[in-house]
Amino acid sequence: MKDSACSSVGMTEIVTRFRHHAPSDEQQQRMQQVRQGCLDLAVLIDNVVPHSREKSDALTNLEYVMYQANAGIARREE
User: Fold this and answer.
1) Start-to-end Cα distance in the chain
2) How far is the C-alpha of 66 from the C-alpha of 39, rounded, in Å?
3) Which residue has the higher pLDDT, 72 or 78?
4) φ/ψ of residue 71, rounded to 5
5) Count of CB atoms within 10 A of residue 73's CB?
6) DSSP-assigned letter for residue 51
7) Residues 64, 69, 70, 75: what is their CA dihedral angle, to the nearest 10 degrees?
8) 76/16 Cα distance (integer angstroms)
9) Exposure string (b/e) for 23-53, b if CB count within 10 Å is 16 or more?
10) For the whole model, what pTM was predicted?
11) By three-state DSSP, how is residue 25 classified?
12) What 3-state DSSP class applies to 8?
């Protein structure tokens, strides 16, 4: 018997996550907007937050936010 905590995510989701998604021109523009917004926030954080573990974590997490937002644009649209 399979433990429900270890259930499969499904082949459709696996393919969605791991295949290449070539963005359209319109998607590329929106992805650039996300990158620019994250860059602006990264510069602000760098300028106002003292050098610390928290600053490093904030920048790392912002990088993750950018990646996830752009992956959502590329992966989740027809």
Assistant:
1) 36
2) 9
3) 72
4) -65, -40
5) 20
6) S
7) 120
8) 8
9) eeeeeeebbeebeeebeeeeeeeeeeeeeee
10) 0.80
11) helix
12) coil
Tokens encoding 1: 């018997």
Q: Which of 55, 56, 59 is nearest to 42 (CA)?
A: 59
**H helix or E strand, kind and range, residue 46:** helix 25-48
Structure tokens given for 76: 């989740």
Q: Residue 70: is it exposed, middle or buried by C-beta count within 10 angstroms (0-12/13-18/19+)?
A: buried
What the block records as the tokens of 13 is 């989701």
* 14-62 pLDDT, tens digit each: 999 898 889 999 999 999 999 999 999 999 999 999 999 999 999 999 9
Give CA torsion, residues 55, 58, 61, 62, to 10 deg.
-110
